[in-house]
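Attaching the record inline, Q. Sequence:
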Amino acid sequence: MEDPWQSAYDIAVKVAREAGAVIRKAGESEIRVCTKSTTVDLVTQTDERVEKIIIGALKKEFGEGTHKFIGEESVAKGQPCILTDAPTWIIDPVDGTTNFVHGFPFVAVSIAFAVNKELEFGVIYSCLEDKMYKARRGQGAYCDDEKITVSDVAEIKKSIIISEHGTDRSPEKVKKIFSTMQRILCIPVHGLRGSGTAATNMCLVACGAVEAFFEIGIHCWDIAAGAVIVKEAGGVLLDVDGGPFDLMSRRMVSANNETIAKRIIKEIEVFDAERDDAVVQKSN
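Structure, as predicted:
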């Protein structure tokens, strides 16, 4: 039986690598920086150019009629963030823009593909490291061509946990973020880390370098590809309240096993983050 999405997967890997080459080249020249929602929520010309390159290449292959697109920069400019049953590409052209601007060496291209609201595959190219993480539903996860699996650490006290601070610097939210980190650090765990990119963080969970990643305030394009990769590497995905993972909720815990995920959840001080599909939710 013919695999309906193999060619889409192969093209996603190819396009992600090409986009990464553009990012590396741009990093060698002057970077023009603008801001989006806050002074720490950055966007560069490279973000916008790379998204156009990715979406342009995919539209050339699959047309504009049947396939839909959710891109970080497109949504920032007012396009709706709607996940329907239609084949949908979910794209973060430069995950880790602040890293990119500062030369911090973790920047990723993230491309996911969903059909009937179910993620079929995810591709994350850590372009400065030249590592291609990829996974298809039911077919395992890989870094380049080597199969990867989550760590077998069973105890939270023997784990490394990874998280980020987000771009919202309101004192109330920052206080809760650092309170959560303090509570987790004092379990105690072996350490807390942060790469500056959610996509890379999820790949670190998938390949067993860390045991868990959690964050409130991320977006669907930050984590869609990583969600497939973590799951196919044997990991788990949960909401920060312990319920099922919801791609549009902007909150997530990914971990090597459910025990560690639920132990982290006990320490998280939850705060509000408007859903990615909030406009659609409000209109229904």
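The first helix runs from residue 6 to 27. The chain has a mean pLDDT of 92.

More tomorrow.
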